[in-house]
Each structure stands twice: as structure tokens, then as C-alpha cells.
Amino acid sequence: MTNVPNINDIKITPEIVKEHGLTEEEYQRIVSAMGREPNYTELGIYSVMWSEHCSYKSSRFHLKKLPTEAPWVIQGPGENAGVIDIGDGQAAIFKMESHNHPSYIEPYQGAATGVGGILRDVFTMGARPVANMNALRFGEPDHPKTRHLLAGVVEGIGGYGNCVGVPTVGGETNFDPSYNGNILVNAMTVGLADTDKIFYCAAAGVGNPVVYVGSKTGRDGIHGATMASAEFTEDSEEKRPTVQVGDPFTEKLLIEACLELMATDAIIAIQDMGAAGLTSSSVEMASKGGVGFELNLDKVPQREENMTPYEMCLSESQERMLMVLKPGREDMAKAIFEKWELDFAVIGEITDTGKLTLTFGGEVVGDMPINSLVEDAPEYERPYVPTPKREAVDVAAVNDLNKAVLDLIGGPNLCSRRWIWEQYDHMVMGDTIQRPGGDAAVIRVHGTGKALAISTDVTPRYCHADPVEGGRQAVAETWRNITAVGGTPLAITNCLNFGNPERKDIMGQFVGCLEGMGEACRALDYPIVSGNVSLYNETNGSGILPTPAIGGIGVMKDSDKMATISFKNEGEAIVLIGKTKNELGASLYQREVLGKDAGAPPHVDLALERRNGDFVRALIENGQVTTCHDLSDGGLIAALADMAIAGGIGASVAVDGELPLHAALFSETQARYLISADTETAETIRKEAKDAGIPVAVIGATGGKRLRVNNDAVDIPMSELARAHADWMPKFMAKT
Amino acid sequence: MKSAVIVFPGSNCDRDMAVALEKVTGHKPQMVWHQDHDFDTVDFIALPGGFSYGDYLRCGAMSARSHVMKEVVRRAEDGVPTLGICNGFQILTETGLLPGALMRNADLHFVCRDVKLSVENADTLFTQDYMEGEEILIPVAHHDGNYFADDDTLDELEAEGRVAFRYCADVNGSQRGIAGITNAKGNVLGMMPHPERMIEPALGGSHGRKLFTSIMNRLG
Predict the structure, then answer these.
(1) Distance of CA A237 to the CA centre of its chain
(2) Could you say which of A252, A423, A427 has the minimum Cβ distance to residue B139?
(3) Taking CA atoms, what residue in B is nearest to A247?
(4) What is the CA radius of gyration of chain B?
(5) Handedness of CA A502, A508, A511, A513 (dihedral sign)
(6) pLDDT above 80 (res A170)
(7) Distance (Å, rounded) from C-alpha A595 to C-alpha B195?
(8) Closest CB from A248, A559, A560 relative to B54
(9) Which of A243, A228, A276 is CA-nearest to residue A112?
């Protein structure tokens, strides 16, 4: 046997403390919490538990201000995922999480393990995962790394989700130079469970066995959480070894084995081993339960030789779970995991010491008060400066509107994402009734007539121009997208991607976005039930656009009533709900067509948002419309083009003269929808809207093979428009 | 009609197959875990799609060597109608019940979309409710669906009417656009597209139903 040097003999020096991402002040805090100097293993454990990623030390103070409650919320933030009641004794369990840094370093594995991690967060709570979504941001298309990163991320998401057999039903992908050195990969999973079969992580029962299941522990991913809590520099690529490797096959077995065990009454508490692995899962479980854990590290299944306690505690090897079982249920549980050919090991027991005690080779190698790992973690109320308000600006018109429309529809931000989503199995499980490409993905609740609508959104341009307005808009847009398919929005998860919080301007963006989000959530009765914060998204001091990605969920009582964006019939009336204002500040038109980014973003009037949305949802529920699409990036003309392309039917519209034509077409005024209906129904809708005080206008009709505005102010053959929309991404990805 | 759906570690279209069988034929199939190789006598065996054993070796290679597949091969050779979809098709070629192999898609990407198929032979037990030459819309979802066999084998398949389905346009680089083939006896069908995903309008269409009604009508 090799002689393993005792890692705890290493003397803690200021350099070692710094390497662990801890400040001298934080180190002193550890010493006073423990009443002595930590040993090397303990230092490692504190460093990950107190990392930004695990402790939310810069964000907690502000996160507390977000609304998290509603009568249908079963579990808000603080557990592995949020839980909402969707009626009939069923619950939707969901969360979104970032895997930004690993995906930049190693796009395939980074993205794949991002999907794996979020799946585990959801099935840990007893849910069968039923849908995956994502929100992706890449650098400018011309950046030499963009295609490599996009190709790898898409393949990684597909490689994992397809194998596990959970459909990837939608998401969003955008490009901006601010992500050149720091892409964003946010993955979301939605699961379904019975409301009386939800599992939590609070450990209980002194003497009860602590059980490790899943894959063996290796040296991969050590200090992943610490990496995710620091800025990127040029040598970040050297951190490739800290990116974990995914094993979706094992994940699939783990899902089935856990769900099988969950159908019994054996489990007291369960937690996946995510960031900071065994350490954070045991601390989390012990802390929530107010108990201690004693773990014998010799019992941890290992796939590499001579692993030290430090490595075992900090490994982020994937596809592992920790459970507390009722006494006497070990054999039954073991049989289930053996059936699925997964490791099962009793590695410790619950104690009443309130400590995390680690033994290895018969010696105590770590002994830390659980409280100090969680509650004593530093909390910073970091100084910030609010983002200065932008003035309204005049945004110029262009002469060639046809070209402007084609450039937008056939450009990186509005073109078809088919190249991406065709690499995802979006139909497995047989309940996808609205596939990618619409406003929201819709999946049936298996075996019922109900459905869930899911949407991920944020407009980082707006968040950059005005964080408060951008925060409101991100929440409102998911609400609107869910509404546009006929869903009743219920709750959101989020993934808050920002730069370095130690910079006052970045912290100002964070605080502003949260303020706007909170306001929107309150106004729309749309609470936040789970989420994740990813800070330090910077490379060499240059931060990303503030990107609070929102994942919203809604429910539809009757899935047959679902609306889609495609025109269905010729000769239908096209109706605009909501009033267009001259809001071209921070618009896509301005950025893509004029190459500028100035002015204030569109204002989000939350009362109006709610009124218009509730009206549209009622129309859909009453079966009055055949087509519905919300208006967002690119404005009225972009939405109209989407509807025409999706249905293969042209349209001719006239917009009134109150606004300059380019503003009427490209303005990104919020709370607007386009719908289509037969002319008679459209007239009824118009009257109903008028009576309800909802701005409404019949602007044209479907039909023909051209997209036309005001006769020939815009006049584009559908074939040309559809080609521009379809071709950009495959051509871009095929470039060599 | 008594049917069995074989479930391997990593199968993930097993539930979809069971739902389709039950919805279309009215009979709930028996789910057979791969370790239960001594399963009941059934009229029909389905090998579902998915990633058995993660596809970490060649797709279908591990499953093809499992105990349960030895039993499936024995029964198929005895004439029990056997259907392999996607990963099931890959397993069938790995066992040798069907000739050829399924290689990585020509463009190297996973592909999930509805594709047009033409029913090349409507005189098999799996296709009798279709019309010969009928064009149907069925989704594919695979990374390794690029059918390959040598020319002699391909000629033989064509001559014997064993090409059941052909892609109307190239999807994955398959030789002669082959999407599904039968064995010489006609009781084994392997196909890459997923008919079980097209059994109702809400899912995008119902063109997959006739495959299941064909089997049911033959077996009663």
C-alpha cells in the first residue's frame, strides 16, 4: 500500500488561505468560529461553504427582499427547488441554475453537467423531471470562440438530456460582445410530483444512517464552487481539470432508483451532491435538521486510489446523492440501488453534537460546528451606485425598411433557432404539445387534460440601460409568453448572472434588477420560488451585461385550448392588443440596424401588463383566437413575421399615422400581443376590448404570399423572409 | 393481444411505447425488466428507444448481448412479431436479427424532427393498414441512424421487399434512404423513426397509429 502523506500536516499559511479564495478577515472569522485554527481539510470545507456560490454572501441581503409567497406556493427558496401546487393533488417542482464558468472552459461537459445538476435538484425532491429548458448567451458571432462554444454547449445539453430521456422543450439564445469571454449557460428543469410525496433535505433522528448512493467519488471538480466565485483571467483555461464530467446514463439510473425508493416510506431526507459535493450536502442536511453528522470517509465509494479526506469532501463528481433513511430500511433500499447497478453505502450517522465530524483511517480529520459553516458565513452589504438613468433619444428612421426587416429576422438575434433545438430530443415522454419556436413550451401533465407552460426570458440590453426597468421586463416577459399560449402564470425561478459584486456599478445593477423583479412579481402575483446567483461573470475586469434570466411556469386547465404563433387560415383579421408608443431606446432595431445602443428602454406598466394579459388569456380560454404572439424584441413587425413564417401564410397590415412608421414597426413597447381570428370574431373581440378599456386595433388580414405594411412601405415575399429566418444559423455554424 | 416492452438500463421511450400500445390497441403491455429474461409468453415484443447502457459502447451492443435478448432472439426466430424502434432497431442489428448497422449521422449531429417517410411495403404485418407508397410524417430522434449495409445486402433487402420505410429526403446519410427494414420472415421490423410519438393530433399527428393497428389487426 502506498503511504499517503497526511494532508492535515500541511501548515496553513496566508498563501494557502488566499488560494482558497478566502480573505484574511474571513480566515479570522473561521478561527473564531472554531475556537482554533482549522486544519487543511477543514479550511477547504470552510472555503467552499463560504464561497459566493454556496453562501450567497454578496447577494443574500438583497435576495431577502424578493416576494416568495402565494397561496399556491408549497416551497419557496431554500430547498433544492421550488414547489407549487398545480391542483388535483399535483405539484410542479422547478429551478434554474447556472453553469457559466465550466461551460466556457469546456463547453460540452460544462453544459452537460449543468443539465445533470439541475435535474438532480428536481428529482431530489421527489419529482419526475418532465422538461428541460435553458437560457444561453454567447459572445458576438464574429468572435473566434463563439461557434466553438455554441456548438459544444448545444451538444452537451443534448448529449445529457437526450440520454436521460427528459425532453429539452425550449429556451433562448442571444449574442452580445459582453459575453465574449464569459458565456452564460443557465439550465432549468421542471418536474412533477404528488403534493403528499415531496421530499426535503432536513435530516432528523439521532443514530439514523446516512447513506451515499450513485456514482463513485473521484477527483473531478474539486473547487468548482470556488472557481465559480472568482473572475476569469487568461489562465482560466488551466482550470479545465475542475470541470466535472457528466455520466447521463448513471443519472438516468439514479432517477429511476430514487423514484422507486421514494415510493416507499424509507427516506427521511435526501439531498443531491452538487457544488461542493459531499461537504455541502451533509452540511445542508444537518443544518436544516438542527443535528450533527458523523461521516466515516473510508466508507465513501471511490473511483480513484489514495484520495485524501480533503479531496473526498470537495470533489464535485457527478450523479451522487446523500440520504438519511429510517432505521432498518437499509437492506430494502440497498436492493433497489443494486437492481439499478448503483453504489450504495452507509457512510455515517446522525449525531446530536451539532457538528460535522469526519473520520478517516480511524482518526478524526475534521470537526466543525455545523452552524458556523452556514450561519457564520459572512454576509456583505456591498456598497453600490445605482445605474444612471438614460435620457430618451430620437432614434433615426432608415430608408429601406424591407432591408431592415430582413436584417433583423435574418440576423443572429431573431433568426430561427431550429439548428439548436433539433439537436435536443424535445418530444420524448410523449407530452410535448408545443414544441420549441413558440412563445412558451407546453407539456401535458401526463395522463391529464392539464398542461404546463414554461418560458425563459430576459433582455440584458434593457437591464444594462436601466436595471430596474430591465428586471421588471424580464419577469413580465415570461408572464406574457405564458399568457400568449393560454397559460395562467404561477411562479418563477431565476438565475442572476452578474459581474463582480465588489464593483459598485455592478452591485448597482444587481440591486436595481432585483428591485424591478420584485416589483413585477408582486404586481403579477408571480412569486419567486427558487433560484441561483452567479456573480464574478467577468474576464479581465470586463463584466457581462446584467442578465437576470427568469424561468416562468404557468398552468393550463384544458390543454386543448392552447394557442400557437402560426397563422392558421387565410383571410383572418389580425388584431393588435395594447398601444404602441415611440419606444426605440435600447431596442433591437437600434442596435442591429443602426449599430447604436442609446436611450431608455421601454417602460413596463405592470398594471397594464396584467390587464392586457388577462384579457388575451380569456380570449384563448374562450377559443376566440386561432393565433397569438406576444410582442418583444423587434416589435410589431418581428412578431408579425414570426406568425407568418410559422404558418406559411402572408399578411397585409396598415398601421396608423400617429407614430413615425419605423417606430410603429420596431418599437418595443411592452404589454402588447398580436392575435388572429375570423373577421366576425375579431369584431366581437374589438368590442369586448373597447368595453374593457383595453387598447385594440384591427390592423390587417392574413393571406397571400407576401408580408406587407401600408401597401408597399414594407413588401417582402414570404419565401425570402422565411429563407432569411431559416438560413442564418445553419450558415453561421457551417462557416469554417 | 398480449405484448411485452423490454426495458434495459437507459431505455427511455419504454413508457412512450407502452402508452401508444395501450392507447391504440386498448391492451396494456407488460413491462419486462432486462433481468427478467424468463418473461411470459406474449404475442408481440417491442424494443423501445432510448440509450440502453448509455450508448457508451456501440449503440445497442451491450443490450444485444444481454440474457433477455437471447430470449427475444429465440422467440423472434420462432416467429413472434418483434418491433425495434430507434435504439431497439440498433439492438436488433447488433443481435443479427436484422442485417446492416446504424452509424453516426452523416452530419454528426443528433437530429430530432418530423420527417416524411414513404411506406415502401404495405404488405407486412407491421404496415398492412398503410397504403403502399403512402407518405407519412413520423419524428426521428437519434444520433446514430445512418443505415449501412453492403450493396449485396441492400439489393437483397430491396428485392425481397424488406425495406418497409424510406426517408423521402435525406435525414442522416442512410444508404438508399432506408428508415426501416424487416427480416426475411417478415416478423421482425426495425426502424429509426418513432411511430409511438405520432398517435394523436396534439402531438403533431396520428400517422404512427396504423403501425400499431396493423399489428393488432393481424394478432387480434
Answers:
(1) 25
(2) A427
(3) B54
(4) 15
(5) negative
(6) yes
(7) 48
(8) A248
(9) A243
In chain A, residues with a C-beta closer than 8 Å to the C-beta of B15 are: 429-430
Q: Hey, are the CB atoms on B202 and A560 less than 8 Å from each other?
A: yes
H helices then E strands: how many in chain B? 6, 11
Task: Write down the pLDDT at residue A542.
Answer: 83
- Cβ of B12 and A252 within 8 Å? yes
Q: Determine the average pLDDT of the residues in A237-242.
A: 60
Q: Which of B35, B110, B194 sits opposite A158 (nearest CB)?
A: B110
CB contact under 8 A, B16 and A429: yes
Rg (CA), chain A: 26
Q: Tell which residue, A655, A659, A615, A658, has the closest CA to residue A636.
A: A655
Q: Buried b vs exposed e over A680-712: b needs ≥16 C-beta within 10 Å?
A: ebbeebbebbeeeebbbbbbbbbbbebbbbbee
Q: Which three cell numbers stand for residue A491?
A: 411562479
CB atoms B203 and A432 under 8 Å: yes
Degrees to nearest 5, angle at CA B112 with B106 and B118: 80
- Interatomic CA distance for residues A674 and A629, integer angstroms: 5
| The A128-138 sheet, strands edge to edge | A73-75, A82-87, A90-98, A184-194, A128-138, A168-175
C-beta separation of A636 from A577 below 8 A: no
CA A294-A296-A298 angle, to 5 degrees, is 170
With cell 418473461, the residue in question is: B39
Model confidence band, residue A227 (pLDDT cutoffs 50, 70, 90): low
A580-636 residue pLDDT tens: 999 999 999 999 999 999 999 999 999 999 999 999 999 999 999 989 999 999 999
CB B189 within 8 A of CB B85: no
Model confidence at A6, in pLDDT bands (50, 70, 90)? confident
> pLDDT at position A7, please?
81
Of A520, A607, A522, give the one whose Cα is nearest residue A68.
Answer: A522
Mean of pLDDT values over A285-313? 95
**Contact status, residue B86 vs residue B190, Cβ threshold 8 Å:** no
Instruction: Confirm if A250 and A319 have CB atoms less than 8 A apart.
Output: yes
**Sign of the CA dihedral running A365, A371, A374, A380:** negative
Q: At what angle do helices A467-484 and A606-621 cross, to 10 degrees?
A: 10
- Among the partner-chain residues B20, B50, B203, the one whose CB lies closest to the CB of A433 is B203
pLDDT at A2 over 70: no
Using CA atoms, how far residue B59 sits from B19, B63, B75, B93, in Å, is 24, 9, 22, 10
pLDDT one digit per residue (tens) for chain B, 220 residues:
899 999 999 999 999 999 999 999 999 999 999 999 899 999 999 999 999 999 999 999 999 999 999 999 999 999 999 999 999 999 999 999 999 999 999 999 999 999 999 999 999 999 999 999 999 999 999 999 999 999 999 999 999 999 999 999 999 999 999 999 999 999 999 999 999 999 999 999 999 999 999 999 998 7
pLDDT tens profile A113-145:
999 999 999 999 999 999 999 999 999 999 999
Residues of A tagged active-site: 53, 99
Indicate the Cα dihedral angle A610, A613, A618, A624, nearest 10°. Answer: 160
Instruction: Name the active-site residue from B13, B120, B142, B196.
Output: B196
**Residue A226 pLDDT:** 65
Contacts of A155 in chain B (CB under 8 A): 109-110
Q: DSSP assignment of A328-364, as one string?
A: T-HHHHHHHHHHTT-EEEEEEEEESSSEEEEEETTEE
Q: Please say if B194 is a catalytic residue.
A: yes
Q: Which of B13, B59, B86, B142 is catalytic?
A: B86
Interface test with B, best of A253, A259, A342, A428 (most B CBs within 10 A): A428
Pairwise CB contact (< 8 Å): A433 & B139:
no
For position A680, what pLDDT does the model report? Answer: 97
